[in-house]
Amino acid sequence: AVVSTQSTGEQAKDAAALRAVREHVYDGCRLGVGSGSTVVYAVKHLAELVTTAGLNVTCVPTSFQARQLIIDHGLQLSDLSQTPELDVVIDGADECDPQLNLIKGGGGCQLQEKIVAACGKKMVVIADYRKKSQELGEQWKKGIPIEVVPMAYVPVMNKLRSYGLEPVLRMAQSKAGPVVTDNSNFVVDAKFTAPHNWELLETKLCRTPGVVETGLFVGFASVAYFGMKDGSVSVLHKPPV
Predict the structure, then answer these.
(1) Any alpha helices (H) in 25-100, and if so which ranges?
(2) How confident is the model at residue 6 (pLDDT cuts 50, 70, 90)?
(3) Average pLDDT rounded to a whole number, residues 173-179
(4) What gap in Å lies between CA 186 and CA 151, rounded to an integer?
(5) Catalytic residue among 95, 113, 147, 213
(6) Does residue 147 have an active-site annotation?
């Protein structure tokens, strides 16, 4: 018997990524490639599929990390100036509720992820069982990642407090000072204690001067694949309106 060295969480990510790639990538597909740990598995399976089936797939990344993954696997790299319309976008999430509302941006890539997601006809979410919640905030305790123009971070944080949120400027791990995104902005993590009307909150946040984008993805995802503890994959479709 082959003994896997992967942890249950990693096996779950791998299983979800495989299902999503098999069911949504096809010849001639223009694909948005998300960011994060689960997407690493998706790109691996995508490269295998392209090689074995000889598919022609154009890949548009959502971050420096995604771009490197595409290049490292020898896949066809494009960008939104050349490929502004995408057929499918495959991306991870930090949390997902039954309506397929998402919190993203734990890795600080939420701005480019949302731009790319908005260019796709369909957004496919891949994650492990730890990201599946009945209500946002149930599993993910770090708040909503908000990308903020550096000069505005103090007034923005004051505004967030007035909205009933608890903002924290995200600090870097291996650098003195704050996290700086791929777009040279700061990230403020806005913690919340009770569920909100996510669509209203998202609108309010985006109307706050200095806020570039938020990690709340409301109405973007069409389907979510969750790798479960037992090795199966749970599929959740966006409820009909």
Answers:
(1) 37-53, 64-72
(2) confident
(3) 96
(4) 9
(5) 113
(6) no
